Design the sequence.
């Protein structure tokens, strides 16, 4: 049993408000031999600084930066230790201070958290967060082994060298306890593949039917290939600033009212039974009928305590009473269809055991109550791991600034990446987003961050 | 004296943009430290877990994989033999493993529930078709041990 003391659940506080000023992306590809990692990071940074209608010139921007956070998941993918140091140099930020953050798949979210902490404390006033991953140096099977080196190498990695299988163990148990139809899971993949069709940045877009997803080959049952995220090369940049600096740079900054992190044991095996940590929209009564003979433990193999912890802190920090009512947009870390359903429950979109209703009700769709992953997510658009959590917040920022069309609909953007804007293109701009949420997540829920961005 | 290269070359995979193949071939020396006794015990067909020896510790749970220090009080643990019969909590069959995987596929991974153990050890089912709730017993690979977690597997009990 995990027992919380009075300090453990303290709600974090920013001493100074933190603003999000601008964001930039590259496109995402399975292989990107044309550009090295320094080029990709520079490209994303240039988009952030030169294409977001900032009131300062690139030269003025460079004179305003006073701290930089770098985000890369795995040194062995890029085969370059201290790659951040090299990128910092190529971008031209020496001798300013920097730090590189690593928390697995949640590295992007954690890097933004580190940057927010710097701004909130007054340590810095203008902080670019630069994330990237280069996953094309090794064959996919070696890539999977590299990712599985982030599981426990003593007691687990040898068992398959395959993170999808470790998620699949959770998925099988979740299905045993909650019996989600595979059709519901397939609908998540179809939704995100379709959203990716309207993104010039996306690596893996497609119009799929539920049947096509269900008939696809299994990677590790019950997960099929089309239910798993991509491996990508690419970069993303988000610029954070304090209030004064933010308004000097743009008339339209967004406020990062909360960003909080939680963790749980790297081995799913070691997750001990404990009472459910309740979110503001839940009471003891919510779970009076939850536990049965089959479903006797929490978080068990069905839930991510790290996500629940991050949401608990962030919701209380930002004053979120009910996520479905209070958020207008959500970006989840849809590494696998079923982990997305598990996350819906962890972040309180539905009580535990009922996550499927978020999809089946239509809530998660563009015309639903809480449009989710219009970016195309990890399944459709990208998972260049160190860039992923940053990419999510860049897409959220553009949505909130009403710039989604500017960054997705213009034919020149498609041409820039050697693509043609599809004839069936449709705008995924969510109207009037006042408050949005993004979840960054590391396998199998070992690290999770929950970010909340609001109109000031 | 002129400096000589050793004569090896990096294969050119693509000329423009230039892509070359760097070869890597070396070993890692993997130290199990205090966890080593677990792997050594597998050779004697024993499944060893650890329990906290601190009389003040409220939890005193049995951990498998073993831990050298109690995560609840940081006190040292003692080795205790764990039961070799349990049930399958969950399973998934690996069809596309990562490159270094050393078993045949399809390989059913399982998480095993053992009486008195607070964790759900990940392992694999050596024979049979896995089902949730299925009783299983431990088997040990002692003939040609890998000296890894693969030396422990389970079969239907």
Sequence:
């Amino acid at each position: 049993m995990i027992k919380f003391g009075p300090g453990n659940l303290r709600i974090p506080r920013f001493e100074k408000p933190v603003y999000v000023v601008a964001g930039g992306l590259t496109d995402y590809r399975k292989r990107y031999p044309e550009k090295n990692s320094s080029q990709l990071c520079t490209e994303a940074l240039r988009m952030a600084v030169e294409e977001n209608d900032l009131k300062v010139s690139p030269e003025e921007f460079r004179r305003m930066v006073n701290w930089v956070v770098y985000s890369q998941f795995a040194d062995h993918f890029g085969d370059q230790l201290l790659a951040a140091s090299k990128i910092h140099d190529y971008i031209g930020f020496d001798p300013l201070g920097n730090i590189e953050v690593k928390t697995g798949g949640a590295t992007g979210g954690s890097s933004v958290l580190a940057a927010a902490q710097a701004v909130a404390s007054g340590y810095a006033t203008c902080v670019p967060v630069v994330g990237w991953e280069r996953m094309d140096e090794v064959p996919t099977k070696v890539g999977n082994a590299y990712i599985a080196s982030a599981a426990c190498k003593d007691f687990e990695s040898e068992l398959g060298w395959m993170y999808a299988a470790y998620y699949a163990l959770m998925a099988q148990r979740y299905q045993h306890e909650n019996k989600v139809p595979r059709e519901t899971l397939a609908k998540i993949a179809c939704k995100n593949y379709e959203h990716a069709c309207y993104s010039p940045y996306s690596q893996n877009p497609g119009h799929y039917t539920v049947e096509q997803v269900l008939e696809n080959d299994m990677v590790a049952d019950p997960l099929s290939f089309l239910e798993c995220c991509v491996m990508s090369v690419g970069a993303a940049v988000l610029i954070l600033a304090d209030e004064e600096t933010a308004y000097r740079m743009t008339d339209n900054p967004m406020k990062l009212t909360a960003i909080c992190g939680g963790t749980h044991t790297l081995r799913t095996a070691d997750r001990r039974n404990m009472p459910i940590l309740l979110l503001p929209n839940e009471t003891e009564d919510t779970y009076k009928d939850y536990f049965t003979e089959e479903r006797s433990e929490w978080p068990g193999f069905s839930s991510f305590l790290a996500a629940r912890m991050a949401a608990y802190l962030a919701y209380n920090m930002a004053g979120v009473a009910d996520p479905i009512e209070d958020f207008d947009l959500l970006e989840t870390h849809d590494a696998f269809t079923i982990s997305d359903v598990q996350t819906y429950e962890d972040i309180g979109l539905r009580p535990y055991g009922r996550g499927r209703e978020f999809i089946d009700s239509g809530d998660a769709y563009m015309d639903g109550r809480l449009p989710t992953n219009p970016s195309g997510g990890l399944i459709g658009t990208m998972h260049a791991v160190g860039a992923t959590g940053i990419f999510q917040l860049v897409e959220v920022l553009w949505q909130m600034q009403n710039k989604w069309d500017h960054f997705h609909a213009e034919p020149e953007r498609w041409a820039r990446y050697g693509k043609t804007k599809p004839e069936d293109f449709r705008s995924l701009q969510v109207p009037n987003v006042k408050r949005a949420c993004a979840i960054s997540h590391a396998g199998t829920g070992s690290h999770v961050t929950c970010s909340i961005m609001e109109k000031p | 004296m002129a400096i000589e290269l050793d004569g090896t070359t990096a294969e050119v995979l693509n000329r423009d943009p230039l892509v070359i193949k760097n070869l890597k071939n070396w070993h890692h020396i993997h130290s199990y430290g205090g966890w080593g006794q677990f792997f050594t015990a597998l050779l004697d067909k024993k499944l060893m877990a650890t329990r906290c020896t601190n009389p003040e510790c409220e939890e005193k749970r049995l951990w498998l994989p073993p831990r050298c220090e109690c995560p609840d009080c940081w006190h040292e643990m003692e080795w205790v033999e764990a039961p070799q019969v349990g049930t399958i909590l969950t399973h998934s069959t690996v069809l596309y493993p990562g490159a270094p995987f050393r078993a045949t596929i399809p390989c059913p991974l399982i998480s095993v529930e053992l009486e008195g153990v607070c964790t759900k050890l990940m392992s694999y089912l050596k024979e049979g078709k896995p089902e949730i709730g299925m009783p299983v017993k431990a088997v040990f690979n002692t003939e040609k041990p890998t000296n890894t977690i693969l030396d422990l597997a389970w079969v239907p009990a």
Notes: Residues 257-454 of chain A form a domain with the Peroxisomal Thiolase; Chain A, domain 1 fold (CATH 3.40.47.10). Chain A has a mean pLDDT of 97.
